[in-house]
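Weekly sync, protein design subgroup
Attendees: M.S., D.O., the rotation student, P.L. (late)

Item 1: inverse folding check
M.S. brought a backbone from last month's batch and wanted to see whether the design step gives back something sensible before we order anything. D.O. pointed out we never logged the input encoding, so this time it goes straight into the notes. Structure tokens as presented (288 positions):
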């Protein structure tokens, strides 16, 4: 489990899909004034340097954020523009070197009345996350960071006092037990807080446990009679080098998320696809 470092993957196409979906959900949820609890069960290091040895070894950002930035001058979609603006504000030069992880995006979107809870188990990434967030945090922001198993800890924060919350569950799935642990954590979380907006990232792979994961998520969501949305982005055919596609499963999707993703995902597909082999999928169901 400790072999996984998100620094190898920061800014790849899966991060682009995940982070645009996350920011779009936050924007839609912030249309209401009620306080929100923001939870990231698998936070990572918070901010990444695309010139460090991790990112330079894998070069995954070249098929993600660096590719998207090349197409940015012709971009007309506000959600994509807002995401690129946050990234551009982090840079000290014209080039993209610093990439924000989900903790940074949640931090920069949180309002004074929101709470942020970050969990990260890796003994090397957790202190980096702490340092990064301590440098950003203002005195009045309610932020807690725990070096714990996010699957187990999630329930401790639910339900939030305001009864409104967004929960990002973003394991690497390099530990094959993550598929089961994610479903178990979700089951417990929904039991305590059925109104939460849950965002679960997953890789699209041909292995059986990965292939079955969306239908397991669907079954669990339907058993609780909750609305859901599934969004997937493919940039190249399955079997080519590296991850070719990934998805987001959203339980209780905010109003108009489907419409928003229906305009941003075609742009991600056309900007990031390799040899015209990209595609996207959006599927959703209201509760019965
Ligand atoms: N959410 C981050 C982002 O979007 O920037 C990336 C997270 S990365 C895909 C998964 C992270 O989960 C890794 O940093 C890994 O060390 C951490 N991790 C693995 N197992 C964990 C667990 N059981 N609880 C909390 N964190 C865990």
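Designed sequence read out in the meeting:
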């Amino acid at each position: 489990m400790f072999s996984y470092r998100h620094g190898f993957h920061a800014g790849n196409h899966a991060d682009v899909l995940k982070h645009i979906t996350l920011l779009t959900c936050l924007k839609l949820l912030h249309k209401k004034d009620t306080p929100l609890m923001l939870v990231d069960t698998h936070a990572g290091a918070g901010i990444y340097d695309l010139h460090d040895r991790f990112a330079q070894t894998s070069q995954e950002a070249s098929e993600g954020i660096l590719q998207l930035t090349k197409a940015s001058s012709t971009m007309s979609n506000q959600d994509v523009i807002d995401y690129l603006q946050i990234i551009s504000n982090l840079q000290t030069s014209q080039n993209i070197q610093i990439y924000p992880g989900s903790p940074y995006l949640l931090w920069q979107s949180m309002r004074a009345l929101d709470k942020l809870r970050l969990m990260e188990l890796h003994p090397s990434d957790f202190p980096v996350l702490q340092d990064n967030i301590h440098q950003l945090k203002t005195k009045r922001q309610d932020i807690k960071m725990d070096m714990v198993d996010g699957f187990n800890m999630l329930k401790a924060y639910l339900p939030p006092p305001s009864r409104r919350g967004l929960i990002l569950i973003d394991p690497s799935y390099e530990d094959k037990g993550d598929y089961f642990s994610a479903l178990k954590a979700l089951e417990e979380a929904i039991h305590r807080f059925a109104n939460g907006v849950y965002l679960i990232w997953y890789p699209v792979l041909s292995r059986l446990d990965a292939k079955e994961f969306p239908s397991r998520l669907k079954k669990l969501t339907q058993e609780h009679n909750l609305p859901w949305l599934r969004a997937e982005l493919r940039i190249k055919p399955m079997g080519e080098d590296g991850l070719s596609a990934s998805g987001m499963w959203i339980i209780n999707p905010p109003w108009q998320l489907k419409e928003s993703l229906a305009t941003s995902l075609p742009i991600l597909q056309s900007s990031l696809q390799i040899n015209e082999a990209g595609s996207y999928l959006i599927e959703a169901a209201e509760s019965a």
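Discussion: The chain has a mean pLDDT of 95. The chain has one domain: 6-285.
Action: P.L. to compare against the previous round before Friday.
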